[in-house]
Amino acid sequence: MKAxxxxxxxxxxxxLAACGSSTTDAASTGDGSGGGASTGGxxxxxxxxxxxxxxxxxxxxxxxxxxxxxxSSGGPEGGVVILWPRLVPAExxxxxxxxxxxVQARLRAIVERALPGRQIEVRPEPERACPQAGCTAVAISxxxxxxxxxxxxxxxxxxxxxxxxxxxxxxxxMTLRQSEVGFREPPESQIRAxxxxxxxxLLDELSQGDTNVEGLVRELGQ
Length: 222
Known about the structure:
alpha+beta
């Protein structure tokens, strides 16, 4: 059974603000996995190595400017890299950590079905973004949003390089202002949840949107 949103809340950098809408914006507040909320949502530029310029598939591991959120690997060339999900808002990062791990496993299973034989690399927490020069592989991830006991999930994906990120609904009901955002821009800024599912049933509800995710992966991997 899905949880009704009731009084809507709009997420803003620094907290929640009440509004009269019956929907909820999964606006960019950062996922908190890098040691604090990211008020802008997008990741800042990084260098490929100490004293060098950025190159595709590399970055400085644990760069303090982004709290380690930029992947230290761009994934296998010709393959797929599954990034750590974006967890919104920052205050829900601890509660969403276990579901995020399970969502990554679910994404891997979907990639294996959609692109059999492709090499897959799964990045650890908190590596949620491609390096500044882009990932070497197709990049797949998710956005998990929680409010009270309600959750929604969307899947994201992009082609290699500095490519835009596609967004598809996965669990819960939502509207997308746009189905695509620019390279390393926060996809959650385009998601408006209209009906959330109980968080303890999120993984069960994912199966209803698996076809959307599989189609996205297959298209990006062509």
